[in-house]
Amino acid sequence: MSTSVVDDDQYCIALQPVCDAQFQHVGDELLYRSSPQASTAVITDPLLATARACSAAIYDIGLEKLVSNRWLFLNVSSEWLARPELLPTPAEQIVIEITDSVQADSETVRAIQVIKSYGYRVSWTLQSDDSRTSTLGELADIIKVDTTRPYDRQAVQSLTNGERTFLAEKVDDLDVFERYKSLGFQLFQGFFFAQPKTHTASLNTRRSNQSSQLKLITELYRDTVNLDDVAKLIAQDPYLYVTVLKRANSGYFGQGKQINQLKRSLQLLGLIELRTLVATVMLSQNGPVCRLTMKLALIRALMCRLLADPFPGIDRESAFTAGLFSLMDVMLDLSMETLLREVPLPEDVLAALRTRSGSLGALLVLAEDYEKMAVDMDGNDSTQRAQLRRCYLQANEEADALLQSLKTS
User: Fold this and answer.
1) Are strands 71-76 and 94-98 parallel, antiparallel or unpaired?
2) Which residues partner with 144 through β-bridges?
3) Which end of the chain is more exposed for a tag (fewer CB within 10 A), N or C?
4) Homologous superfamily of domain range 8-199
């Protein structure tokens, strides 16, 4: 799996103001730019672009400095809706903008309902497709209307019930502004107010210590997370270290005094926020992570851990690590050998990953074969078949619970 990304370290963001009818600056739309010189977005991977924009806005620059207490409009794709654990906080300041590529299906409706239950507002651009209006439009808190398209009075009126706010976008002159203001629109966006303004962070700090990040991912998914171990790993990564301190001292977590101790910062952030931060930073730096691949990796890791339980001589956490890292190369777009050279894993885990040898290798093969339904069922008695099935189903449940726990912070 290979994804080509141009100028990996040069991406930045731009903001386009959102104003009210009295010309007050009330919000900003977050725009991704592949470089400071780019005037428009060139996006080949929506998930990666959103991750990078969030990482730059939330962690590199900081919301207080970037938008103060204004709303931040964040464009999201279907892939991002499927991963609400990565949405930034505070929810009451973020407007989730549903892009045109998002389908109006039952999965999308459920995802939007979950997001709204967390306190996020949802924005959607009105389309002429009636089916989308009756689904996505009805769920939206803010309805955007493109002023360069013919005005669909009937569609607008169909959404005026409830407490929805209407926003006119692409307002490029005073006449358009006055027209839509007279129609009752409350918010406005376009070149009439301002061109998008580019914001850059310290580009030379984005290259993180990938080795410590990989170990950190393993540590953060243990049953019992040791903050001392997590702090030691973060201390090996200057970018993550600074990012954690900045986040802990942000207005959202601010305690009224400067926090400069890493462990205190970790305690303040909590496990869910820390997982979100690390996942977003890794996603923004190392390329797109496939949601299905991540879940498959968790299921495999959890199944290996469960298979190890009956054997006192096999460390269940080593089994978990072997399962998780068996797909880490795919998620990080690295060769397995490169990955194993960078991460000092135990010898038994290395043997399992390289040659599927040893006790851990046998467990890993069992898990992989069961995923493919390639286990020789005729060669196993009913007890073994039942154990494999039980471990696989339990691993699925635990993976779903783990991913759900990230969504319900």
Assistant:
1) parallel
2) 125, 167
3) N
4) EAL domain (3.20.20.450)
